[in-house]
Amino acid sequence: MVTLDDIRKARERIKSVVIHTPLLPAKFGPPNVYFKCENLQRGGAFKIRGAYNCLAELGPEVRARGVTAYSSGNHAQAVALSAKLFGVPATIVMLNQSIAEKVAQTKAYGAEIIFAGDSSEDIKARAEEIATERGMTLIPPFNYPGTIAGQGTVGVEILEQLPEVKMIVVPIGGGGLISGIATAVKETGPAIRVVGVEPEGAPTIFECLRAGQLVTLPGTNTIADGLKPVRAGDLTFTAVRRYVDEVVLVPDSAILEALVQLVTQEKLVVEPSGAASFAAVHSGKIAVSGPTVCVLSGGNITHQFLGLLSSDNKMAEILASR
Hints:
The protein is an alpha/beta fold. It is built from 14 helices and ten strands. The chain folds into two domains: 219 residues, Rossmann fold; 91 residues, Rossmann fold (3-Layer(aba) Sandwich), CATH 3.40.50. The chain is globular.
């Protein structure tokens, strides 16, 4: 398993590249709520931390052969940006239904894009083939020590910015972010609660915990495109079972309501996946009893969701169209 020492070493590797994102108190949310603004991170999400750390760990000759990755969007952008910073080629395998804005930004960083399926398992298999065929190094989005260690630097920053924190709420996709944060937090202050949030339509880790083992969902259905892998990983599941206090589920309607408040009241541009943590607090799914940090994991919002701000009926239209 990844350790606090691994996370500290990752922080040294990435410190000249990533943004030490702000921790802001909520203006209109419940008292004692703070936002860790990874929506303001390079590439628009926390993913640059793990991606850059993985590339930095590679030897120059290995790195020069290029890297590949699979992703619905944010990890794609992070690997593409990291590869650009190192001056090496990147080939990214994305879902057929990946959001157009995320595809366009990944291309803008110079990566080759290949569409290869409708599930996380489909694109993972294709990326593994490409790694073998082209001699590239695969940079996994969550179930990899270098990725988890990089994401864990978010936890280290939170502890420095708010030493009195009592609870940290984290969105869960494949579990890399919460695994890293929980490791950093629990190995520093075991009494701090770490709570994960998943959409009701993508209960990946939730179902693993209920079954007591890794399971593969038959499918996922949520507006939070960054939180819908059908299967977690052995490393992330182990870390969650060891360090995470609770995992809760929220409906898409709660995510949208939280997103609207973040944009209109808090003046923070956050995508649905990034708003899931605040959705759990805003909807009352999680009770706040002390200084609580909601990790806003990404800000790569699409024009579709920005449109909901212009019409009272837009939120219902978006939900009805799914």
